[in-house]
Design goal:
This is DOMON-like domain-containing protein. It comes from Sphingomonas changbaiensis NBRC 104936. The structure is a single chain. The chain has one domain. Helices cover 0% and strands 46% of the residues. The chain contains no helices and twelve strands. Strands 1, 2, 3, 4, 5, 6, 7, 8, 9, 10, 11 and 12 form a twelve-stranded antiparallel β-sheet that branches. The N and C termini lie close together (10 Å).
Length: 177
């Protein structure tokens, strides 16, 4: 069964200057997540990181980047995936507290691009039991404009993907495939 897409929305205080759509889907298997992000619009206006190879890198969120926040019993996990195929994974003990590198195998990332769509799919290890998921993205334009996308944004004038309100999707039960 193919997962239903979820649509991400830009934060109202930091809208893109061009119309884009961003959808994501998630499938949970035993021990890992399969995520797919599809950004559609005039990609020539975007600053998309060049292919660099699947290496762990910090600060990917400062440029176009797709993210997943996973609620666990003991805090939450943060995953960052760049169109460059670089990635990052962190564990937090509480809201923006106790950040540490998450030791996982290198995620399997695939990136494809056409004139009007950028698609990133990833299979990433899920080393802890998880209940809820926040899907998000940072989209950087060549002009320097950044928009912050999420399934749900918390109240306020600034985006905050770490906020519990962003964990808007109940994770489906694991499948065998």
């Amino acid at each position: 069964m193919r997962p239903e897409p979820c649509f991400l929305h830009p934060h109202s205080a930091q809208l893109p200057s061009e119309p884009f759509s961003l959808e994501a889907s998630v499938r949970r298997a035993r021990g890992y997540l399969r995520l797919r992000y599809r950004l559609a619009g005039d990609l020539d206006t975007l600053s998309i990181p060049a292919r660099a190879g699947p290496a762990r890198r910090d600060n990917l969120w400062q440029h176009t980047c797709f993210e997943a926040f996973v609620a666990t019993g003991a805090g939450y996990l943060e995953f960052n995936f760049s169109p460059s195929t670089e990635w990052a994974a962190y564990r937090f003990s509480g809201y923006r507290e106790g950040m540490e590198q998450l030791d996982i195998p290198t995620p399997k990332l695939r990136v494809s691009r056409t004139d009007q769509a950028l698609e990133l799919t990833v299979e990433v290890a899920l080393p802890e039991p998880a209940t809820r998921l926040g899907l998000s993205a940072v989209v950087e334009e060549i002009s320097g404009t950044k928009s912050y996308w999420a399934l749900r944004h918390p109240p306020g004038d600034k985006p905050d993907f770490h906020h519990p309100d962003c964990f808007a999707l109940e994770l489906p039960p694991p499948t065998d495939a």
